[in-house]
Design goal:
Layout: E1 2-6, H1 11-23, E2 27-31, H2 38-47, E3 55-59, E4 62-65, H3 67-77, H4 88-105, H5 111-119, H6 125-148, H7 165-179, H8 188-198, H9 201-206, H10 215-219
Helix pairs in contact: 1-3, 1-7, 4-6, 4-7, 7-8
Length: 223
């Protein structure tokens, strides 16, 4: 069985959980702290030398890091429920949309970046918050436009009648924005896609609030 090193707050791990669930792939969650004690952190460095979540253990000689690489691996190994359509042009559009979240937005708002700004650069909370929201809106605006451009051909999901890689990468970003109270009024199309996605069991089971390591949700009776 596959083993996913994950954390409920990790946006990258959230993407991978959605893909695994949607494809119906059995896996074991190995909950790994974002900080953790030194021994725990050292143990995870043996799994992923970069020390970042997620990592997917496939077998002893294959541990995949980086969520994009994991998603590509899952798509190739488990093609029965594809997250990319057969048509080349549409595949390119979906990949381009997904990369706005994966490559242009999430790295700038990663926890280690925000902590570096706080601890090493002395950036106060108000300016860190402004940074965080600025890059989210820089992503959501173009993403909204790309979906609106479809006009009457629009589906409930991003580009197709079923979830695709675009939805897998969008939902964790919206989920994080909602968790931190970011205003999303200007993005009705994105919010509509988000609602359609989270109505599905695969997305619900991947949500941060439903993960076993989310002790705050358990205390509040949400998980």
């Amino acid at each position: 069985m596959l083993k996913l090193f994950t954390h409920h707050r990790s946006v990258s791990a959230h993407r991978v959980r959605i893909a695994l669930n949607y494809k119906g792939v059995a896996y074991e969650s190995i909950f790994t702290g974002l900080d953790g004690a030194s021994a725990e952190r050292q143990a995870f460095l043996d799994v992923n030398p970069q020390g970042l979540i997620p990592a997917l253990w496939v077998e002893d000689d294959l541990i995949i890091s980086q969520s994009s690489a994991i998603l590509e691996y899952l798509e190739e190994r488990y093609p029965e429920r594809p997250l990319l359509p057969a048509e080349t042009t549409l595949r390119a559009r979906i990949r381009s949309f997904a990369q706005i979240a994966v490559a242009d937005t999430h790295p700038l708002n990663n926890l280690r970046v925000l902590r570096y700004m706080r601890d090493e650069m002395g950036v106060d909370y108000a300016r860190r918050r402004a940074w965080f929201e600025h890059w989210l809106h820089k992503a959501f605006g173009p993403m909204e436009s790309l979906l609106v451009e479809q006009g009457e051909a629009a589906h409930s999901f991003c580009f197709t009648a079923k979830p695709s890689l675009a939805d897998v990468c969008l939902v964790p970003q919206i989920s994080m924005a909602e968790r931190y109270g970011v205003r999303l009024d200007d993005y009705p199309r994105l919010r509509g896609v988000y609602r359609a996605c989270i109505s599905l069991a695969a997305f619900q089971a991947a949500a941060p609030d439903t993960q076993a390591d989310n002790t705050s949700s358990r205390r509040s009776g949400q998980a």
